[in-house]
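Translate structure to sequence.
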């Protein structure tokens, strides 16, 4: 079956833009504004991505695409992980989460971390497609750069040139990022889907 359009589960315009930039040739429909909040109650990124994709599929009866992303910091025993979007508190902003991570990391010399993204597609026929990728890096000692979103301004990818994701253009970031990799892996799998 050829997938020509998908409905996004995310209402985050930054994520939507990254998805559109990588999945060229597929019509990306926005998350329905009348769809309420989808509770992310899964114990893993994969479970949460599937929960969101399935909820949008059920609501729209169309092919739905969701992602879930987590930052895992070695010195914090893998936290914030599945709770990355709500690490500082349940309604935390990106700025609050970044400040909270920097505070937690003040006395740690081990700055190693990884970003993980899971992309999940849910088809009305019951089929699912999942792609999971990661990128290793380090947590900066302070915020650097104003591009991107989330923890981008404090994450320095090992495969980069020493800049944070927040200092990179979207093209530079997408070429090595967890989400860019997961989307490309997903796009490759989509060719053989069904």
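Result:
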């Amino acid at each position: 079956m050829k997938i020509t359009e998908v409905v996004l589960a995310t209402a985050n315009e930054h994520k939507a833009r990254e998805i559109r930039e990588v999945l060229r040739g597929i019509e990306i429909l926005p998350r329905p504004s009348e769809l309420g909040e989808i509770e992310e109650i899964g114990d893993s990124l994969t479970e949460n991505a599937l929960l969101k994709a399935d909820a949008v599929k059920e609501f729209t009866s169309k092919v739905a695409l969701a992602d879930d992303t987590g930052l895992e910091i070695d010195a914090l025993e893998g936290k914030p992980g599945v709770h990355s979007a709500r690490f500082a508190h349940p309604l935390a902003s990106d700025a609050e989460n970044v400040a909270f991570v920097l505070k937690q990391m003040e006395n740690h010399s081990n700055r190693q971390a990884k970003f993980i993204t899971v992309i999940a597609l849910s088809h009305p026929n019951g089929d699912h497609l999942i792609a999971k990728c990661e990128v290793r890096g380090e947590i900066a000692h302070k915020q650097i750069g104003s591009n991107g979103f989330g923890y981008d301004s404090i994450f320095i990818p090992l495969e980069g040139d020493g800049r944070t994701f927040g200092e990179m253009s979207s093209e530079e970031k997408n070429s090595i990022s967890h989400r860019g990799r997961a989307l490309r892996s997903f796009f490759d799998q989509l060719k053989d889907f069904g």
